[in-house]
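WARN retry 2 of 3 for item q-0093 after timeout on previous attempt; input resubmitted unchanged.
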Amino acid sequence: MRGEPILAVSLVFPPNPTRVGRLHLSTGEPDYLMSSTFRYNVRAWAPEIEHQGNTVTIRQGGDEGRWGIPSGNVQNRWELEVSPLVPGLAAHAWT
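OK item q-0093 returned
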């Protein structure tokens, strides 16, 4: 991503009434905006990454109104390391 510097990272993680998903945030290397690993086994939940202006948004895939309450052996884990040089981080996650 070249051009304007990234000033904010926004994360949208699903409501989690059954505690199936996990979001782990930590400080990463200053030379990289972000390092991430996404583990999921519901194809519709593949993370969507959007870069608009000076903000990067990562959102769980699928229709927010249809995430529902998962059942069975469901995996949804996000592991993110964000550069300490990014001044703004907004995480919209439910516990």
